[in-house]
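WARN retry 2 of 3 for item q-0093 after timeout on previous attempt; input resubmitted unchanged.
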Amino acid sequence: MALIIDGKKISDTIKQEIKEKTQELINSRGIRPGLAVLLVGEDAASQIYVRSKAKACEDLGFHSLVERMPASASEEEVLALVNRWNNDPSIHGILVQLPLPKQINEVKVLLAISPRKDVDGFHPENLGRLMIGMPGFVSCTPAGIVELLVRSNIELKGKHVVVVGRSNIVGKPVANLLYQKNPRANAIVTICHTAAKDLSYYTKQADILIAAVGVPEVIKSEDVKENVTVIDVGINRIEDPNHPKGSRVVGDVDYHAVFEKAHAITPVPGGVGPMTIAMLMNNTYISAEGSIFNV
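OK item q-0093 returned
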């Protein structure tokens, strides 16, 4: 029977570790980690995410600041706020919730965030540091994936990891993380996507399969080999007349079918999702602690 990799349980453990370190940081140096979040507009999903981040900050003893702007806000207003937070010593992490309204250039805003407060790990400086193996902030979902694997005692050294998806948020950074020469990685990594003529040719070679393509249940049982470890990043809502809500959330992997062949697998929901906020909190703590950019 496959090991179910419980992201909720692992994330709770990580957050407890951060909470203890935070109290020590406050007691020893008088530094309370601070996270500032900007929400522009009324996107329902974004509002849920922002509330969950604020709640996590409260639980861990962080200072949390949430700024809301109307959907009509200008790019100049957003950039001015980011600049103010860049220069505020009580703020250690800055997060601008995406998507932004069409009149605001998302890339311009992300570039305006100081790399030293870029706890989302999206700034080119942090992505560049990741690529060459220097300390920096790692995107939260890829960092969470590595924690899931390491804390579930999944061997990475020399294993063939196949990443399906090439986004800047998941696919590219997680591939870069996993081929690094260190004890928490050192894997052989293939990155592919749905433009492949035969995607299953690659996925069937995976010792560890990371699915981050955004297509509901695109990975079937016949697309994986026996004893594969599966990390399913996808969160897709599909119609289901038999469900009380008329729909349900599924991943990029046909969970029940692949479960029968897998050595270990993450559920959706409850797998990768909880790890993202845990790693955001971890990055904010690291920023407050202050040593990451000494190299």
